[in-house]
Specification:
Layout (H helix, E strand, L loop, with lengths): L20 H21 L1 H15 L5 E5 L1 H18 L6 E5 L19 H7 L8 E5 L6 H12 L3 E6 L5 H4 L3 E4 L14 H20 L16 H15 L3 H11 L2 H11 L5
Parallel strand pairs: 1-2, 1-3, 3-4, 4-5
Helix pairs in contact: 1-7, 2-7, 3-7, 4-5, 8-9, 8-10, 9-10
Length: 276
């Protein structure tokens, strides 16, 4: 079967520079509507991956996202949002981008073309058989990602991939390939658009469902979120008010003493609220 990069085919739209702003925005929005449907078709593979990750994480395993350019940035973004949202240590979900953290802001020349560097970057974290490595590459051909996934499989590490093209080399290197076929981009080849949106959606789905299954959510609340600003302290206080039927000041005092909503609720049930 011939591999075709659908994501880099000619846009369905032409003469973009002659369109009005309204036309451009309407066209982009029309294309974005296709993304959720493409992601929905990938749910069986996403489910398979999440189920495998939860089993490994309960045994001490971690998640690694690895990618280059926009794909790498989106993996780092999702990983960086797990600690404040779910109160997990940053070492549990790690994002790695070709070229290092400097590549988050500026392109690093030839970083994605090194087939050995991805495995080297993973080894810095002592990656092992309990872990899961997810390669993200819209094109499905990024050497940095392919090399990393191949090395992981050689060492018995579970691998997955997120791509925007069917039957790609990256998918062939993954135990659980996730193919999200969004079609040609509005600006030809600009995978930061629909492909990037879909990657963000899938990463959100993976990390959120894993954290729920790891007990980091109660009901529908982020009961383990980090209390990093006044807004989150207020949100946590109101969660405790609702859960324990306490007045606002008592709930806030309990929250700040405990450090998280979850620990506050546990402390209340174990020791009851201390009196002033």
């Amino acid at each position: 079967m011939t591999f075709v990069k659908i994501s880099e085919q000619e846009s369905d739209y032409t003469d973009l520079e002659h369109k009005s702003v309204h036309e451009i925005l309407t066209d982009i929005n029309r294309e974005d509507h296709k993304v959720a449907d493409a992601v929905a078709k990938a749910i069986p593979q996403i489910e398979k991956l999440v189920t495998a990750i939860v089993k490994r994480m309960k045994g001490g395993g971690r998640i690694f996202y690895i990618g280059a350019g926009t794909s790498g940035r989106l993996g780092v973004l999702d990983a960086s949002e797990v600690p404040p949202t779910f109160g997990m240590d940053p070492s549990w979900v790690v994002g790695i981008i070709a070229g290092g953290d400097g590549a988050l802001r500026s392109a690093v020349e030839n970083a994605e073309d090194d087939t050995r560097r991805g495995w080297y970057d993973l080894q810095r974290f002592n990656v092992g058989t309990k872990d899961t490595v997810i390669g993200i590459a819209a094109s499905g051909t990024t050497p940095y990602v392919i090399g990393a996934l191949n090395a992981c499989r050689e060492h018995g590490i579970l691998t997955a991939s997120i791509t925007s093209n069917p039957d790609s080399p990256v998918a062939a290197a993954a135990d659980i390939p996730i193919e999200m076929i969004v079609g040609p981009e509005y600006v030809t080849g600009s995978s930061r658009m629909k492909s990037g949106t879909g990657q963000k959606m899938i990463c959100n789905m993976i990390s959120t469902s894993v954290m729920i299954k790891m007990g980091r959510v109660k009901g529908n609340k982020m009961v383990n979120m980090q209390l990093t600003n006044a807004k989150l302290v207020d949100r946590g206080t109101r969660m405790i008010c609702d859960e324990l039927n306490l007045d606002y000041d008592s709930a806030r005092r309990l929250l700040l003493m405990s450090g998280s909503v979850n620990r506050a609720i546990q402390a209340y049930h174990e020791h009851r609220m201390p009196e002033n």
